[in-house]
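As noted in the main text, all predictions were made from sequence alone. Below is one such record, for Calcineurin-like phosphoesterase domain-containing protein.
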Amino acid sequence: MMKVLSIIISFIVIQGLLITSNAIPISETSNVTFEEKYNDMLDFIVIGDWGYQGKGVGQHHGNQKNVAFVMKKWAERYNSQFIINVGDSFYKSEPDDHQGVDSVNDEKWKTAWLDVYEGRLAEIPWYSVAGNHDWYNNVSAEIEYSLTVDSRFFMPSLFYVRTNIINGEKKTKVAWIHIDTNIFFYKYDLLKNDQMKNNFDTLGWNDDNDVENKLRWIEQQLIEQQDADWILATGHHPLIGACVAYNYMPRLVELFERYGVSAYFAGHAHVLEYQTPKPDSPVAYFTSGAASRTSEGCSGKDWGMPEGTFGFLHATIVENEMTFSFVNATTTKDKVVYQGKLTARSIWHPK
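Prediction:
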């Protein structure tokens, strides 16, 4: 059983331990559950692949700032409580730039995050997982930044668990399983990026044993959270249509279906896409990876916007119902392009 601590207290404990060390190692899994309490409802925004700052022809700024502007409006309109960041937080945006971040002192913390996401977006936590572009450099610096510089960029380890207790007319529990999917998406022997391969070597992620260990860790967390009204999972790589087929990713689908995960949020594909729950699976799959770049998506999806669309996902949970909206933020004139509802695990049925 994992220890359950309030998010503030547990963060201070971890931070204090790491500050005593001269070097901060990559933390793979957290041994505590970070508990948060909210009144009446949850409201959050999901974005991924947001750290590209490159400018198109004739642009005064990159597409990232358009999306950030619209996100700010939505976060302030709905008083959003946090951001779910599904990774690829920092890109190589120019020829003389570098992938990811070099350290906690990298200027991208300011230029790609603090200076871009303002207002309400600069006040609330960003619950984060790593994407492949984060692994292309010093992924441990993102953990170190979270623990020693600014806890709003919340990534205490590569895998971690949070719970939200919503105190409304009915007490509602939401469990979040934050997963680093890079170990499941990529085969070590086929890795092309040298720094990513070095990072895998550092953690011993070079054979099937650690893959199985991580799958067992995820399964154990899902077992421990079976009392939750909602179980939500986040990771970088999508599980929609044909995108499921990469290496060990189907194993995640098996676990999510077996233990009644409500929804999985991802990015990597630079699109807005959705796969609805089916009678034989309670899982809704979301891709929100269009916060600064666009690309083709996953074949076999139920719904999706075409390449060239930028945007994000907004969601609200009130007791047994989640409502969600995909927002087109290609320009600063935002437009809702898809809306839907999900129901809690105890009364689930396809919508």
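Confidence is low (pLDDT under 50) at residues 1-23, 57-61. Residues 208-224 form the longest helix (17 residues). These features were considered when defining construct boundaries for the mutagenesis experiments described in Section 2.9.
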